Amino acid sequence: MIRVLFVCLGNICRSPMAEAVFRDLVEKKGVANRFEIDSAGTSDWHVGKRPHEGTLNKLAQYQVGTEGMYARQLRKDDRDTFDYIVAMDSSNEQNIQERFGGSADHVFRLLDLVDGSLKDVPDPYYTGDFQETYDLVTEATQRLYEKIEREHGPFER
Ligand code: 4NP
């Protein structure tokens, strides 16, 4: 089993979007049984809440499911549970490492996987632009799949 955790600040906008889009991707590739996919926030501000309406609407527009997704806070033991811990921005990455009490080398930023100048996924909670975030997350999670396939695959279909 390959365990992937997406992390942002509130766990209501960006990381649930990445979680849902990545789950949809592995389902379409027929390899969902190889993966456990989750998301978390560095803050506890929205614990127990469903994703932001803007994230839900954008995912519904692309027929990406969000069933059973509720915000939770990152825990210290996530460090050992997950194989890939994917931060939405530099601030999240720093907060994750602080929570883990050291530098874990399986923590990285999602946009580290994409060529381009943007390194932080813009936060639609502030920008209001859920399309921009969806497009970036969709491209970057493709790259993430390719990285995991290089490191663990190829997966049987
Ligand atoms: P997220 O966005 O980290 O992508 O879920 C945010 C959600 C909520 C807040 C900030 C960012 N907030 O300040 O409540």
What does this structure look like?
The chain has 157 residues and is an alpha/beta fold. It has one domain (2-152): Response regulator (Rossmann fold, 3-Layer(aba) Sandwich), CATH 3.40.50.2300. It has helices at residues 14-28, 53-61, 78-81, 90-100, 124-127, 130-152; strands at residues 2-8, 35-41, 84-87, 107-109. β1 (2-8), α1 and β2 form a beta-alpha-beta unit. Bound molecules: 4-nitrophenyl phosphate (4NP).
CATH topology: Rossmann fold
Number of helices: 6
SSE run: EHEHHEHEHH
Give a quick account of the main beta sheet: strands, pairing sense, barrel closure: 4 strands, parallel
CATH class placement: Alpha Beta
Record field, number of beta strands: 4
Helix-residue proportion: 40-55%
Rounded mean pLDDT is: 97
Query: What overall geometry do the principal axes of the alpha carbons give?
Result: globular
Question: What are the low-pLDDT stretches, counting only 5+ consecutive residues below 50?
Answer: none
Bound molecules: 4-nitrophenyl phosphate
Report the CATH architecture.
3-Layer(aba) Sandwich
CATH superfamily: Response regulator
Number of domains: 1
How much beta, percentage-wise? 5-15%
Q: For the CA atoms, what is the radius of gyration? A: 14 Å
Structural class assignment: alpha/beta
Q: In order across it, which strands form the biggest sheet? A: 2-1-3-4
Distance between the termini: 15 Å
Oligomer: single chain
